[in-house]
Amino acid sequence: MQPHGGVGKIKELIRTDRKGDGQKRFVAFNLAGSPVIIIAISLPKYPELLRVAAECALQAHARLGASVPAPLEMGISDGVYFVITRYCHPRNRWEIYRQSRQVLTWLSEVTRRTVVVPLPEEIEREFVQPLLALSQYSELQQKERDGVQGVLSELKSGRWRPRLVLMHNDLHRGNILKASELDTHDWPFVIIDWGGLRLAGYGVNDLIQLALDLKLSPAELAPQLKIHCELLKCNPLQLRYYLLCAFGFFLLNPSFCPFDKLDETLRISLEYLDLSVAKTMEMNV
Known about the structure:
Order of helices and strands: EEEHEEHHHHEEEEHHHH
Distance between the termini: 58 Å
Oligomer: single chain
Structural class: alpha+beta
CATH topology of the largest domain: Aminoglycoside 3'-phosphotransferase, Chain: A, domain 2
Number of strands: 9
Largest sheet: 5 strands, antiparallel
CATH class of the largest domain: Alpha Beta
Number of helices: 9
Shape: globular
């Protein structure tokens, strides 16, 4: 800890995660009493989760730069995996809301920098299979089930040509912290908790979940949807397809699902997206 400035007291950081992330966190302070680093250690019940999360953070940092804090140090000590990261102060809801435009700009830049055209085998794995899984989901209403079949038809005919983007997969205000004075980037915040990272994920999913958490109105979200349509080369109505694919992926991969109630979250997300898309189309007119 000493090389990173942590030579004062150590205090456990209590978190109330919905599902837990397999680790305990401690804050180390310097002699002046200021928090300087976070020390995370893996729990015996989940020995691999912390290592995977740290490696994901490194991958995201490599793609997105200093807005993603990279671990200062990571390894094994006395048979326990540990990760040391720089301490960043949390922000309250009002601070995040004031910076929401910048956060949304950052997110559109993530899409701009990472968007790719999928290979045929990726279309099958990342789009067709999740949609098929969702079409058989018992909690899905018949109207939505028919909608999923429509997306499959659009995909098969080539009327929808999807793109893949980097996806955080659990982007909410709690994972947006104040940037440290030592950070060398232009954003006033950093994004943490990259354990659910997908380098080839679904556009719009992060945007919708973050906008819901910030309680943005459909009118406030509409300009961002327009930007993402341009980046994903799709029309506003096709944004819904990405959200359906993301939730189909969660059905097939429960360990990636950040929601307690998938069916309820899907319904809320689709309703919110539909209202926002309507505002986007009004803008286009």
